[in-house]
Design a protein that fits this description.
The chain is an alpha/beta fold. It has helices at 10-27, 42-57, 81-93, 95-100, 116-125, 141-151, 196-200, 208-220, 246-254, 274-282, 299-304, 311-324, 343-356, 383-407, and strands at 33-38, 61-62, 71-76, 105-110, 131-133, 155-157, 178-182, 184-185, 204-205, 225-229, 261-265, 289-291, 329-336, 360-365, 412-420, 427-432, 437-441, 450-458, 462-467. Bound molecules: S-adenosyl-L-homocysteine, iron/sulfur cluster (SF4) and FE3-S4 cluster.
């Protein structure tokens, strides 16, 4: 359905900016610190950059030491159970700190909070939490912090609405070279295992002019690469009254000065259009990399998952992508042990991996999510079988990833230099257009530059080379 306007009104954004100013005045003269721990996907990482932007403007300084912080934030994920368990572990460990420093504000936000039972559980078991908010009212963070400071009581504000879009809020990006840009929020697909549509609401696309303006500004600030974010970028624009497709958006962003590389994720195979394939082929800045989650290689399981494509359709699509875009790197997500998955179904997943030859596969053990249709399926796969299949899958994929990387030895790749390699003072790191990590000897003027690197050696996860 087309929509006219879902933007948060400019006056509401101004109100929040007033709260930012008020908190800054309160904080005048004291050096207050914050720390944010982020769980989950790039969407959440980017939301944390928005929280950091607001906190910086309130006069707080970032620290990586939780113990020194005056505000501690957990931006949570609920896509799998282990992501949730980690958050509870961290919250439990903060009880003592809160006792010793009553002025400390402990806040939890993000996808987990969009589930009522989680909020109730935190209220009951983690009474030292001061502030709880959700994904739909992130832009109200300044007001919520102000109320927490002023009331001295716990503040809880979670909206169940499908949400709106807040533009023009401060953002503090972690990186100066690569930036995330959200193009759409929410998801309409309701894959039967997935909680995301319930906690992120329905699809809302940002207006093309807002996205282009943001990317222009990033180009002026010296950013070289952008990654466009959405749960399913292929349906970008379907809800806008001006008819814009994701391919159209790529052509518009291709023209932005300063930006050298454009990436995007995630693409749902069911609606990856031929126009998008042509856009990836024809836009010089759009990198030859496609993250195309397959989830399973069995048509029966795909149908149970409500993915709306068959094994054959996926293979046909991959064939078309490879024919049109030479050298494209393909990555994927796979769930192991979806309810009812038989050994034959799983063999089909292994088989399709060998046929497609993904560069990398992100593999997950199926995790039961309360409220999703698959959680009610009585045919759950026992843990040991899931783990055994998982290990088999990883062994097959690792071999393929290594073989693909081995083929690159001797070739020359364009690398965007990101900075020093971890734990090194001489080795630098960057990525190829196909998103592979390359380490090489370099010097401090390289970060932010595109360089040509000859690949000398390969591993499963990375490459080594020499700048030429
Ligand atoms: N919108 C993206 C995926 C977002 S979630 C897409 O559709 O491709 C990232 C990945 O988590 C999914 O691709 C899926 O492989 C995995 N995932 C989602 N729910 C899961 C669950 N209940 N158990 C295990 N893995 C899950
Ligand atoms: Fe979840 Fe499916 Fe939406 Fe991806 S497309 S977020 S897997 S429901
Ligand atoms: Fe997790 Fe929410 Fe992302 S559930 S995967 S952080 S959209």
């Amino acid at each position: 359905m087309k929509r006219a306007e879902v933007k948060v009104p400019a006056e509401e954004i101004e109100i929040q900016k007033d709260f930012i100013r008020k908190i800054k005045e309160l904080n005048e003269g004291s050096l207050l610190k914050y720390s944010i721990s982020t769980f989950g996907c790039q969407m959440n990482e980017h939301d944390s950059e928005k929280l950091a932007g607001m906190l910086n403007d309130m006069g707080y300084v970032e620290t990586d030491k939780t113990g020194e912080s005056d505000i501690i934030i957990y931006n949570t994920c609920c896509v799998r159970e282990n992501a949730e368990l980690k958050v509870y572990g961290h919250l439990g460990a903060l009880k003592k700190l809160k006792e010793s420093r009553p002025g400390l504000i402990i806040a939890v936000c993000g996808c987990m909070m969009q589930q009522q039972d989680v909020v109730l559980h935190i209220r009951k078991k983690y009474r030292h939490v001061d502030l709880i908010f959700g994904t739909h009212n992130l832009y109200k963070f300044p007001e919520l912090v102000f109320n927490t400071i002023n009331s001295g009581k716990a503040v809880i504000d979670v909206w169940s609405s499908t949400g709106s879009i807040a533009e023009d809020m401060p953002v503090e990006r972690k990186d100066g070279i690569k930036a995330w840009v959200t193009v759409m929020y929410g998801c309409n697909n309701f894959c039967s295992y997935c909680i995301v549509p319930y906690v992120r609401g329905r699809e809302r696309s940002r207006r093309e002019k807002d996205i282009v303006n943001e990317v222009r500004m990033l180009g002026q600030q010296g950013y070289k690469e952008i990654t466009l974010l959405g749960q399913n970028v292929n349906s970008y624009g379907l809800d806008l009254e001006e008819s814009k497709s994701f391919a159209d958006l790529l052509y518009s962003l291709e023209k932005v000065e300063g930006i050298e590389r454009i990436r995007f994720m995630t693409s749902h195979p069911k609606d990856l259009s031929q126009d998008l394939i042509y856009a990836i082929r024809d836009c010089k800045k759009v990198c030859e990399h496609l993250h195309l989650p397959i989830q399973s290689g069995s048509t029966r399981i795909l149908s149970e998952m409500n993915r709306k494509y068959s094994r054959e359709q996926y293979l046909e699509l991959v064939g078309r992508v490879k024919d049109n875009i030479p050298g494209i790197s393909l990555t994927t997500d796979i769930i192991v042990g979806f309810p009812g998955e038989s050994e034959t179904d799983f063999d089909e997943t292994i088989d399709i991996m060998e046929r497609v030859r993904f560069d990398t596969a992100y593999t997950f053990l199926y995790s039961k999510r309360t409220g999703t249709p698959a959680a009610k399926n009585p045919d759950q796969v026992p843990e040991e079988i899931k783990k055994h299949r998982f290990d088999r899958l990883i062994a097959v994929q690792n071999k393929i990833s290594r073989e693909i990387n081995d083929l690159l030895v001797g070739s020359v790749e364009e690398v965007l230099v990101e900075g020093l390699s971890k734990n090194s003072t001489t080795m630098y790191t960057g990525r190829t257009r196909s998103n592979k990590i390359v380490n090489f000897r370099g010097s401090s003027e390289l970060p932010g530059k595109l360089v040509k690197v000859r690949i000398d050696a390969s591993q499963t996860w990375s490459l080594e080379g020499t700048v030429i």
